[in-house]
Specification:
23% strand; Aminopeptidase; alpha/beta
Length: 481
């Protein structure tokens, strides 16, 4: 073999190898400009959407501004939806399905991107307010998988709703306006923490120890019992017109106070509460809003609730909301609903389960297998399977479908990578993928990688966020081969 032939052969062999690359080495200035714009809009969204109710309401505002109509305003069958029509359906003000009707009949399948808008937090118990030690406190029950010790001593804000017996709904937000007070959970000082130090991280702060301090000033009525608690009730009554029993029919959450912030001297990251999974939910929604023309296949974005606790309840993906809405949609597009047509539509659908994954963290390298981990700014991450141990509770996407996603992303210039949630037997996690795969549709997990997932503040790369948007947009408008 001569030197020229050897050099050519060596070049070909190098092309056979695969390795992900940092996206900043691969994108154009136009991409970087659009990334900045998308991330600015995203930061504005999650600053306003700190609960699943708020995320739902902000999404509805964006949808209606873009011309989407509420399906609930139409009697089933009274109108016929045509290709290009835009519609959405809400479930209890928490879960949302938004649709652009495609050129092909629904039986050909839908293109679905589905994320969730609930996030780990502290929920107030139904009878939360009490006083002790000269302070008024709120009793909480944590929601989702949290490290309890991370939630002490940080500024907290109260978000949620009181619902009166007559149905009047009173929205409450305290701790976000700079003029507002904030709240916190106390912790032991190091000087008295000898016994606490002996406990594991999971035991050091018990679940019943996550009570939030909300006041320390007694009311003016010196003869009244529980005057610290009563003073807080007076302040809440003056602000919202509620009394203590209104806590019984309320949904109130304690979340980290403050707005998302750009992170790093290069401003290449975003530090925020609730990236999991509003980062995928928003980029999916934004992709649908930016979809131009009439898609080949009906395009759907799902923003769902309760994923962090197993997708249960009336607003979780284990409910019949999606299936029922798909049935209504079929009826409105064909005027001749049949169960067989619905089953065909769902079976022929493609879905990206838009949920976050873990990034390789150089501070904790032992829990990840580096070559099969997502890396920051290497793009949106495709996870063929999730679950734990032997892929338990994973839908495990087919190789054929992963190949289709490769084709779509590569054609659109999407920077993407693959990854899994830590080393085998190290842990694991699940998404809504398996709940959708039960219909026979093709589903794969595809989302943004995070550092410090489920912490009060999570870290995400701006380029990964933008590439999630770009990937979801390409998937929604793709016509298949």
């Amino acid at each position: 073999m001569n030197a020229k032939t050897a050099k050519k052969t060596q070049g070909k062999s190098q092309d056979l190898a695969y390795a992900t690359k940092n996206g900043y080495d691969r994108v154009s200035p136009a991409d970087l400009k659009q990334s900045d714009a998308i991330n600015a809009l995203y930061m504005d969204f999650i600053a306003k959407a700190k609960t699943e109710r708020e995320a739902h309401d902000e999404a509805v505002l964006l949808l209606e501004a873009a011309g989407f109509k509420d399906m609930a305003r139409h009697e089933a069958g009274s109108i016929r939806l045509m290709p290009g029509d835009k519609i959405y359906r809400s479930c209890s003000g928490k879960t949302l399905m938004a649709v652009i009707v495609g050129k092909k009949p629904m039986e050909a399948g839908l293109h679905i991107v589905g994320g969730h808008t609930d996030a780990p937090r502290l929920d107030l118990k139904q009878n939360p307010l009490y006083e002790s030690g000269g302070m008024a406190l709120l009793d909480t029950h944590y929601y989702g998988g949290i490290k309890k010790y991370q939630w002490v001593t940080i500024p907290l804000a109260l978000h949620g709703v009181f619902v009166k017996p007559g149905g009047k709904k009173i929205k409450a937000v305290i701790g976000e306006d700079p003029a507002d007070p904030v709240f916190c959970i106390t912790d032991l000082l190091p000087h008295l923490a000898a016994d606490q130090y002996k406990k594991t991280l999971g035991e050091a702060i018990p679940g019943e120890g996550l009570d939030v301090v909300v006041g320390s000033m007694p009311g003016p009525d010196k003869g009244r019992k529980e005057k610290f608690k009563y003073n807080v009730l007076k302040l809440l009554s003056a602000r919202y017109g509620i009394k203590e029993e209104d806590f019984l029919s309320a949904e109130l959450e304690m979340v980290p106070a403050g707005v998302p912030r750009e992170a790093g001297l290069d401003r290449s990251m975003i530090l925020a509460y609730g990236h999991d999974d509003r980062v995928c939910a928003y980029t999916a929604l934004k992709a649908l809003l930016d979809l131009k023309g009439v898609p080949e296949y009906t395009s759907v974005v799902l923003l769902c609730d309760k994923e962090e606790i197993g997708s249960v309840g009336a607003t979780g993906m284990a409910s019949n909301f999606f299936e029922n809405t798909a049935a209504e949609l079929l009826n409105l597009t064909t005027q001749s609903y049949s169960e067989l047509a619905l089953k065909r539509a769902l079976n022929n659908s493609w879905m990206l389960s838009a949920d976050v994954t873990v990034l390789f963290d150089p501070m904790f390298p032992s829990v990840s297998e580096k070559k099969n981990s997502a890396h920051i700014n290497h793009g949106v991450c495709i996870s063929k399977y999730g679950g734990a141990r032997g892929k338990s509770s994973s839908s495990d996407a087919s190789a054929e479908f992963v190949a289709e996603i490769r084709r779509i992303f590569d054609k659109a210039g999407v920077v993407w990578q693959t990854g899994e949630l830590g080393k085998v037997d190290q842990g694991g996690g699940g998404t809504i993928a398996w709940l959708m795969a039960r219909y026979g549709m093709q589903v794969v997990d595809c989302g943004v990688g995070l550092l410090s997932m489920h912490a009060p503040m999570e870290l995400a790369g701006k380029l990964d966020i933008y590439m999630a948007y770009k990937g979801y947009l390409a998937f929604l408008k793709d016509g298949r081969k």
